Amino acid sequence: MLSRTLSKEHDLPISLILTKNDHAEILLELQVHGLSNSGNGMQRREGNTIFADSRMAGTFSSGILRLNGSIDIIQPDGRTYSLSESYGLHRETGLLGLKGLQNLGNTCFMNSAIQCLVHTPKVVDYFLGDYRKEINSTNPLGMQGELALAFGELLRKLWSPGTNPINPRAFKSKLVKFAPQFSGYNQHDSQEFLAFLLDGLHEDLNRVKQKPYIEMKDAADRPDEEVAEEYWQSHLVRNDSIIVDVCQGQFRSKLVCPMCKKLSITFDPFMYLTLPLPSTTMRSMTVTVISTDGVALPSPLAVSVPNCGSLKDLIQALSVACFLRDDETLLVAEVYKNCIFQYLDDPSDSIDLIRDNDQIVAYRLPKGSEPSVLVEFVHTKAERDNYFGRSEFGFPLVARLTGLPCGYDVRQAFLKLINPFLKPTEEDASYDYDDAEHSVSAHEDSEMEDTQSPCDTESDAEMVDGPNEFEFSLKNSSKIMMSEPVVVPTTERSLRIYAFWPEKMLEKYDACFLGSLPEIFKPQLFTRRPSESVSLYKCLEAFLKEEPLGPEDMWYCPSCKRHQQANKKLDLWRLPEILVVYLKRFSYSQFLKNKLETFVDFPIKDLDLTGYIANRSSSSPCRYVLYAISNHYGGLGGGHYTAFVHHGHNLWYEFDDERVFPINAEGIKTSAAYVLFYRRVPAA
Ligand SMILES: [Zn+2]
């Protein structure tokens, strides 16, 4: 009588009893605990007992049970039977490994990556087995085995029967102990976490206790196959773990010196591919073009600029759209809180610097060769609630300061700029009418207006209603009248003048044209951004494309004996069993961080890398199927992570912290996909 009980007491995830009876049959008792959520038509089943009959006996007697969710039975000859396939038991057996993880305060980045990893076939088998014997507690690069043990415990809990979500606190505290960057309650990057975790697990489980020192021989003119194998073997004598077994592959990396053409080839291991998202499409940008000729009203123009374009491309597109004349130029500026926040005038600047919610204007100015100063008119009006009694409104108007020596007429310049906003007077309105009465009443109105004109009753009116005319000052808080000539510091590029609009002027002009500016791009609710779609293969090609190293990443050329900006070409040489692919959605530059929402069209059932392998003599299969996705929703520094996990047949589940529910397989391809997990399809 052979009996093996994997029960809760032994802290193993499944109650499995194999009993060999007198007739040499194997009875399998599988206790599976159902999902309490029956909204999807699944029934809650506790302690469900499944007996495998004699037809299965042969299979079990020589096979290995693999508890990876779909309960596969692997025969010594490598053939695999799935219990669920044979007996249609999928509903029952599939319920294991569907536990959620509680959110400890923005820990969805961690939960999402963990769910992907704990559904990685060989990794599950490994940690459900006797992995403790491989703990390397003396590896100086490891964490005394503590991280691997904490992960192993967590994985076993996630694969234990029951439906209650697991609290990952014990794991998180170990993580934070060794990687304090993940402490606190801030949102982190699931990719950074995964990179740390894979690396940490590898070192904690490294079977190599003493890493020998190895000096790599120069590739010289030896065949790539030989050199690559040499590199791989020397990697293995220092690094040997479940992570290396399953997740590591090898690049061929070629560097060519631009000066002496010296070629250097290395074959470095990799644990994941970090693929850039090449921009293949255009970015729609709305910019408000503001004339300074005193005639045309501001007009928002939507133009398309290459995603990777520069400010020069934006100006070019705007110039065409607004019919810019040869004697005019466009000055692009960012408006923030009714003032000019900054001028964007380096044509080589990337348009990445402009975010979708920025408000950008382009002033149409006469071309001037002489260095000139710009006057920015910021509009203000009376505001009772404001401390200074005045508040800014609208967007600034800009004029080029000319004729400095003889003084600059601020009022004249301003009146010209706001001329397009002038409301039609009654006289203008009645122009079309022949009716005498209309003309009379219009005339009376204008007479009344005249009597209130500042020439006659300025002081009286100011006493009662405030000024009737525009007031100009250098500061919004003070009332420095600009009757004196303005002294412009010639070192300044622009001079800000506050123009105060009295109530009367707000009525005379249609100031609503100075209202709020449109944003660069406003995504419509419920509609997708004009779909930018790029295939995963295109991302891979962009990654493998030859390009010069960055200036901060120079290569020491042994032949020139100095650092050179070498050309680098990467190729895939050896592929791992589990291929983890990061989509580089987050870009970090000196000035800002950005997230790309590009929709990546990635294969689900057949990722074929045959054409991308530089190793022509390789016989290992290059086809992969997708089994998990870490998704990121929302913007940078926040947002939310979930995981999609394949769970046998065509069933996919979403793991959203503690919530786990089935999803439609057709819906797993979204622009939220961030980290993709592929497993190799064995050769037929
Ligand atoms: Zn060189």
UniProtKB/TrEMBL annotation:
Stored InterPro entries: Papain-like_cys_pep_sf (IPR038765), Peptidase_C19_UCH (IPR001394), Ub_carboxyl-term_hydrolase (IPR050185), USP (IPR028889), USP_CS (IPR018200)
Chain residue ranges for the region called Disordered: 434-464
Keywords: Hydrolase, Protease, Thiol protease, Ubl conjugation pathway
Main enzyme class: hydrolase
One BP term from GO: protein deubiquitination
First and last residue of the signal peptide: none
E.C. no: 3.4.19.12
Basic and acidic residues bias: start-end ranges: 436-445
Pfam families assigned: UCH (PF00443)
Function: Recognizes and hydrolyzes the peptide bond at the C-terminal Gly of ubiquitin. Involved in the processing of poly-ubiquitin precursors as well as that of ubiquitinated proteins.
Family under the similarity heading: Belongs to the peptidase C19 family.
Name of the protein in question: Ubiquitin carboxyl-terminal hydrolase
